[in-house]
Amino acid sequence: MEFAIGIYLALASALFGIGAIGFLLRRNALIQLMSIELMLNAVNVLLVAFNRVHPENMAGQVFAFFVIAIAAAEAAVGLAIVISLFRLKQTVETDSADELRY
Amino acid sequence: MNAWLLVAPLGVLAFAGLGIMLIDAFSPGRAELAGVTTTALLMAGLISVVALLSGVDPGELPRSLRAFIAVDHAGLYFDVVICAGAALSALLAGGYLKEHHLERGEYYVLLIFSALGAMILARAVDLITLFIGLETMSLGVYCMIAYRRTSIRATEGALKYFLLGSFAAAILLFGTALIYGATGHTDLAGIGNVLAAGGADARLVLLALALIVVGLAFKVSAVPFHMWTPDAYEGAPTPTTTFMAVAVKTAGFAIMLRMLITAFGDPLSASPETGWPPLIAGIAILSMIYGNVAGLAQTSVKRMLAYSSIAHAGYILVAVAVSYAAREQAIASVLYYLLAYTVSNVLAFGSLILLGSRGKEAVTYEDLAGAGRRHPLAALPLVIGVLSLMGFPPTAGFFAKYYVLTTALSIGGGMVWVAIILVLSSALGAYYYLKVIVFLFMKEPQAGAPKAVPMRSGYVAFALVLAGYFVIKMGVTPEPYLRMAVDAAQSFIS
Amino acid sequence: MFWEYLPVFVMLLVAVLVAVGLFVLTSSVGPKKMTPEKAIPYEGGSETTGAEGLRLSVKFFLTAILFVVFDIEAVFLYPWAGLFSRLGWIGLVEMLVFLSVLGVTLAYAWKKGAFEWEK
Fold this sequence. Notes:
By secondary structure, chain A is mainly α. Chain A has helices at 5-25, 29-53, 59-89.
């Protein structure tokens, strides 16, 4: 059976697009964090699908492993920053982060 | 066995980072961590210098290592610049954190691992190493900005930088995944070979190239991806700002050069009409104009330096944009610029730390008023620093700009106009640099306003003397440093 | 094919039966007496003052973050375990280095009191 990369490309692009739009439109830091995770997972879909097209080595799948691990570290740091903002301002809306203006 | 010298700097930092973590956990407050951190970073930098001068054959290293980490002279050169920047930031932190009662061990751990990440990023020859290095560096920097947890400004700056930075990293990552799909390679050289042979879908490649350039432009704070810069620079503790301005920027430009030259060096991607050179030149023009114009309106010196860093990113991008043609010269001028910019910036930010004591930082022009007349010795490094950032001879900054300018002019054509914009915009920027000197020597603080008193810290003084020495030295005798840069640039091309 | 995997299916069946059986058993055998007091949402003995959004202590976040970060590292252990015999001694040493780095971070988090519920 022919491996149809187009479907996976479309799926990954859709996921990535949803994540990007969510990031740009929502103003809740936690939801923006989730949107970024969605974008990273779209990349994982893409990497694993492309590995089927280029089966000479496992580069794509290995790459996906690293993306998963780093995404977790990123989420941890992000949550920590959001929590410390919440402690100071009692909100996680990014619009309320307006202390720094010139 | 000698060949291991080429990767030893990375190992030294990894060990030092873990060691400092253990010291901090098991006997907190015992060791002078700023000193330990600086020593480790200087040692790593020194090993790189030795490896640069001794000319070790990298062929003895296992192939599995060389496939992921560059062991060329350019990599070692970036090690030197990043280690110097990080070591000087650690020295500044040693004075600053004590003064502001923030001295805790984790700052140095974060600093050292961020520096390690920056070095890995600058040496990345594979997309996987690129991503690991990028995130190791960035995650540490996010934490270092949010370090002062009681400060709303610091937390806000960190959140903005974190959200936008992760967004940009995701875009970069999508680009790298596409280029992997188009070529079947994750190593930059392999990608370059496939692209040069014309074996990839051109649309996919151009899309990937655009996404990657966006992601990297974000990291070096170029317009229009600069929005986070002033907020993050202002909110962060000043040693963190210094680290961001020097090490993060150096690593960002290093990987940009590697990407554009090694992976996207084929005639189609590097075409001066439709490839990355006009794209980069456009970003450079926007950054130069915006950085210098927006910098004029600032009342905070720290924020002004953030806009100055946007403008400097623009100057460096001019040299990157012409690296498709005048390869060696253009790359060498980028490398020289990064070293000069590192020492000049440490001098400027370090002086701001020095001039603010008793828990209050000197961040606005008003804070500096009259400080030069009251404490001429403490104001001297700030004067040299801003003169170098301005590009005034005989300082490091002058030759850095001079080399970029001559490289751009040697290409001719449209680049002449870019060079003219460079000169005009930096003349505009001279206003806000000179304003610092005017406030230092010709203004008096308003009645009742607190007067800046220099802090007493051996660490800060040592950092300023070191940075000041190199700013002057590189301005008076630039040849040895330029030779080093040219040598490193050659290893890029071969 | 099917017979080869029969023990697995048997085990699956037993596991499901035990889980469901225990639920049924406890809810059918145990005594049930509903009083008006029991129907009130419990709040420290005093009268309920109204619905408050579920607010979790920040301690949960810290534990969750630590769990995610350490847990995800297992992603590198699986491929290594699959190729364990082929990677030989070098693979073993590399994994030990990786694990000892994790060990240092664990010791750091422990010593800094990240695992203490009551501070």
